[in-house]
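Posting this for the archive.
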Amino acid sequence: MYITSGKKLPRNLRSRFQSLLEAKSRGRNESEVETELMSSVPFSATSEKERKKRADSGSFLRSLWLDVGGIDIHCLAAGSRGHPVVILHGGGFDAAGLSFRETIPVLARRHRIYAPDWPGFGQSNAMPRDWCVEECVGFVADLLDALGLKRITLIGLSMGGAFAVGFALGSPKRVERLVLVDSVGLGGGIPGGIISYFALHLPLVDELRWALLTRVRTLARRTVCAPLLDQSGTAIEDALDEIIRLARKPGAGAAFRQLQRSEYRRCGLRTNYLHRLAEIRVPTLIVHGAEDRLIPVACAKQAHDLIPHSQLEIIARCGHLPPVEQPESFNRIISSFLKKSHRESVFPKLLKKITLNGAGRVRSPSGPSAIGRL
């Protein structure tokens, strides 16, 4: 079921969306179905001119509600053409529209963007109490099925990066490109070190710390913004306002603490994909803040050495959240990678159509040099 602008769709439109999604899952062309879906959405823009302007720029965000494995999931969507890109946000009080708020409109100019709130985060319903990393990885597959997507570009930040790696390893045919941003899971170290382990497991300390975030802004800034190199500026204050708003929701933070308790062991993280990174065969972009205080940049460098088709970008004067701290640099890096990897994926397909004539010159079946046409 879909929702736009926070309001439920009329009953007749719900059945329309359901039938279109079913058609998509049966193999109909994704672009055609996407166009029909968008034509059924009652956009909230104030005028037809404004709607067209937003649609052309790819900046119009749509709120979707999906039934994913029996859980009501909120998902932001933007863009109506191009290859589908799924963005997985990080932990803490993060949500789909928080860390990537400056990135989604930029990528939506050329791609169809889907950014879900994890169960227990943002506006989505609660995460089941028995979930660990494995269930979150499985959730990605269920999400793609709910959206009718077969093969995607997958972007994961921090905690979301770990789930993205797990999914890419378990379902390689469904991932065309992979982007890991200050990702967890690239080593066995606990983010924040042994202090994070003890703070998490001391009785009531963790719960009290999270509860105080909503009442003491100074504490919230020091705790939430601690991983950031630059803790000042309008963007940071806006993000902090949104974090405090999300933190005031009943049950906020419970899902993240649940995952932390299942993962944080005195000897390190329970889930460590380091020994399997060489199995990732898709083009992979690794982005990392040079001054990340939670996950050392050495983890990104080691992952780059192990993943065959990887590209490493280290952003200077940046901590754990590049999309928030350095949005312009981050967006430029992501956009360039997606454009480059798309071009490289098209080139081999063109080569399959090329034949060698008797003189040894490279020509396409139609005559003109295929290389010259690129």
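The chain has 15 helices and 14 strands. Residues 1-13, 33-48, 346-374 have pLDDT under 50 and may be disordered.
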